[in-house]
Amino acid sequence: MIIIDICQEGKIMRKSIQKKLTVCLCALLSAAVSACAAAPAASGSSGQASAAQAGEKKATIGVIQYATHPSLDNCYKGFLEGLKAGGFEEGKNLKIDFQNAQADNANSDLMAKNMVSKKYDMLAAIATPAAMSAYGAAKDTQIPVVFVAVSDPVAAELVQSLEKPGLNCTGSSDVLPLEAQLKMIRAFLPKAKKIGVLYTTSEVNSVSTLKRFRSLAPKYGFSVEAVGINNSSEVASGAASLVAKKVDCVNNFTDNNVVNNLSTLLQATDGAKIPVFGSEIEQVKNGCLASESIDYVALGEKTGEMAAKILKGEAKAPETPVYTVREGKPAYSKAVLQKLGLTLPSGFSDAEAVG
Questions:
Q1: For residue 285, what are the CA distances in angstroms to 16, 119, 168, 182, 332?
Q2: Contact at 8 Å (CB) between 278 and 288?
């Protein structure tokens, strides 16, 4: 009996071991099948990575707009359109952290530093002061900076040259058509001799543009009376100073403090019946007499397309030439023309009329 029990017990043990081996073998076979089934998915994932590099990459861009006024708003509008044309659309494969510095350099610096600390894929900056903040914060990192509407990026030390930036920074330049503007002023005001300019002494773009304007003005029989200000709170006193100097007209650049407080300037000049010439059509819409106007939406769009190529790895910021617009389109205000008792010069019959 004992012998039989031992044999039976052995059979039971063998069956148990066989059963366990069968279970293990099935598990191993199942795992192998699963691994084979997963192999195509891995290949698909690799395909997605390639697609991301080709333009479907999810990216985060920190955008700093230096101030709120129509020309800079138009730059941002165009920038988004350019990114979309380049394959990046907000809410789909693009996240944008948009911030406005409200014409405060300290705000702009802080915003840029915060964006860099979050390791965004790119920083974009609208206007010279914002661009300087962005590049200053990102220059020791691998984060590229793309700027919009910087009049003189070389003087602002954002690039080494327009053709070969050299630094991890590129973008677009709104080089004002100053000679065309001077021709316009001469046509509207045949007897004018003195042009007044209000500018911010700390804005590199304004200082650089003023230098060019001074060099060109004598060619058209003008002298230039410039009044420098330190911040927006001095626009009123600066405007009053130009009126007191009896300038025949005032010419605006793209100075952010002045443009952002255009109504303050116009309040002083309107009372003295002194015409103000703007640097783009939005200033004409807001009370200036006329302007050789740059299309800032188109400028922003071109910059957005550049940014998209850099994000996709199709271009590198240090090797991407700065896009420069050098031509403007004339525009004038019918209401201001009538208010000042002036007539439209014959050469500007095709100019865009606003107001």
A1: 92, 40, 37, 20, 8
A2: yes
Write the CB contacts of 244 (distance below 8 Å, at least 6 apart in sequence).
none
The CA–CA distances, whole Å, from 121 to 61, 63, 189 equal: 6, 11, 50
Q: Which two tokens stand for residue 270?
A: 């309107």
DSSP string covering 158-207, please?
S-S-SS---SSEEEEEE---HHHHHHHHHHH-TT--EEEEEEETT-HHHH
| Domain coordinates in residue numbering, the chain | 58-176+296-325, 178-293+329-354
CATH number of the 58-176+296-325 domain: 3.40.50.2300
Give the model confidence (pLDDT) of 124-182 as tens digits: 999 999 999 999 999 999 999 999 999 999 999 999 999 999 999 999 999 899 999 99
Contact criterion met (CB below 8 Å) for 135 and 113: no
Place of tokens 């195509």: 40
CA 202/CA 186 separation, integer angstroms: 29
- SS3 string, 306-320, reads HHHHHHCCCCCHHHC
* CA–CA distance, 294 with 307 (Å, rounded to integer): 21
- Amino acid occupying residue 95: K
> What dotted CATH number matches 178-293+329-354?
3.40.50.2300
Task: Decide: pTM greater than 0.90.
Answer: no
Q: Binning pLDDT at 50, 70 and 90, where does residue 355 land? A: confident
